[in-house]
Amino acid sequence: SSSSQASPAGFLQCVTKANISVFEQGEDLFNTQLHKYMRNPKFLANTTERPLYVVMPVNAHHVQVAVRCGSLNGVPIRVRSSGHDYEGLSYRSVHTEGFAMLDMSELRAVVVDNQTSTAWVESGATLGELYYAISKASSLLGFPAGVCPTVGVGGHFSGGGFGKMMRKHGLAIDNIIDAELVDVNGTLLNKTTMGDDVFWAIRGGGGGSFGVVLKWQVRLVTVPATVSVFKVSASNSQGAAVHAVTKWQKVAPALPDELYIRALVQNDMAVFRAVFLGTCDTLLPLVNNCTVEDLPKRTTSKIDSSHGFKATTDYVRRPIRREVWAKIFNKQSKWVRDMYAFMSPYVSSNSMSRGAYINCRDLDLGPNWGPKYFKGNYQRLTKAKAEIDPHNYFRNEQSISLPKGAS
Ligand code: FDA
């Protein structure tokens, strides 16, 4: 709305005056700071639309001032916590739009309270830093969030947070009890002052739409001091992988909630990784009863993550038939977009619009991405957006829009 009056120079002067570190495009350290948490290497390309400035707040006040400087000068802000956005929307834009990037990586404190089994974690912390701090405070507490330790709390919590304890303890957002949010005016709000709609929206409505979440208070969950993990791989040379994943669909949901088995279908392999919240003595009788003989010999496989990537998601709501799994294995070598089309009858499907997970951001979902990520909740998210950011200051290519007819 304000791009016609945008004043990048005014923004720079405003943050500099407040002694906030800022790096300008063209300056030596600009690329160093920008590239630090650019997790999808394909956006290192020169053609990537970069921010005009990288702003590095070191305290809450800096974040408030930077947002005020941005909104007063018509310069939009994109927030980056740890830069894992699949489409890079925390640090690049698809269309030419001068914006500043707020890099949260210096705001990464984790404070665990053993007495109440809760913790406050700042958005710039990674999941690994959160798990580490909890483990130092207690060997009997944990937090149910994602698998990869470098993922940022800021983006991850904003979009849900699936992980290996989800069968037992739900998603990360099911265990968030308070948060601090800087709104478009630079005001610091908590759960009570932001109100129920906004507190609901920031827990799953995706990052980048409502303001800057500074920190989150989480409820920790009780975990046994010893857990068991295993990994089994099945190659499909004699159809073993197809057999194993067909069976896994039936077995995995019927197992006790303490046992989580994830299946990765890669090339001609099915790789099963499991976590059991208990010891081997309890685990072995469970798996001996149902899965172990179905999952052939172990091999190791390596994932090369040094290249850029493109990913997409959907939800499988009914078990997939064996013949289809066989076709899926054949499809693996093809491009992800072919695979996405092929999967259509077997996922969210038919009368329903296809589904997707906001934390696996996918610009290929097209203009109707809202209901794909959020189903019937999308309308409610637009209302929360209107409440907290009525002029759509916080925006990206897939941020929540204002309700139709709003300003
Ligand atoms: P990033 O900083 O790129 O932010 C993502 C989005 O949130 C952007 O729109 C950004 O503007 C916004 N945002 C960031 N910080 C914010 C803040 N403080 N306030 C408001 N908005 C903010 N998911 C999962 O559920 N389980 C898993 O196991 C994994 N594993 C995994 C592994 C790898 C290698 C990748 C690349 C990704 C995953 N993910 C995942 C997906 C991950 O949860 C998702 O990409 C998160 O949004 C990443 O959060 P970051 O803070 O790192 O991203």
UniProtKB/TrEMBL annotation:
<feature type="domain" description="FAD-binding PCMH-type">
    <location>
        <begin position="47"/>
        <end position="223"/>
    </location>
</feature>
<dbReference type="GO" id="GO:0071949">
    <property type="term" value="F:FAD binding"/>
</dbReference>
<dbReference type="Pfam" id="PF08031">
    <property type="entry name" value="BBE"/>
</dbReference>
<dbReference type="GO" id="GO:0016491">
    <property type="term" value="F:oxidoreductase activity"/>
</dbReference>
<dbReference type="InterPro" id="IPR012951">
    <property type="entry name" value="BBE"/>
</dbReference>
<dbReference type="InterPro" id="IPR016166">
    <property type="entry name" value="FAD-bd_PCMH"/>
</dbReference>
<keyword id="KW-0732">Signal</keyword>
<protein>
    <recommendedName>
        <fullName>FAD-binding PCMH-type domain-containing protein</fullName>
    </recommendedName>
</protein>
<dbReference type="InterPro" id="IPR016169">
    <property type="entry name" value="FAD-bd_PCMH_sub2"/>
</dbReference>
<keyword id="KW-0285">Flavoprotein</keyword>
<comment type="similarity">
    <text>Belongs to the oxygen-dependent FAD-linked oxidoreductase family.</text>
</comment>
<dbReference type="Pfam" id="PF01565">
    <property type="entry name" value="FAD_binding_4"/>
</dbReference>
<dbReference type="InterPro" id="IPR016167">
    <property type="entry name" value="FAD-bd_PCMH_sub1"/>
</dbReference>
<dbReference type="InterPro" id="IPR006094">
    <property type="entry name" value="Oxid_FAD_bind_N"/>
</dbReference>
<keyword id="KW-0325">Glycoprotein</keyword>
<dbReference type="InterPro" id="IPR036318">
    <property type="entry name" value="FAD-bd_PCMH-like_sf"/>
</dbReference>
<keyword id="KW-0274">FAD</keyword>
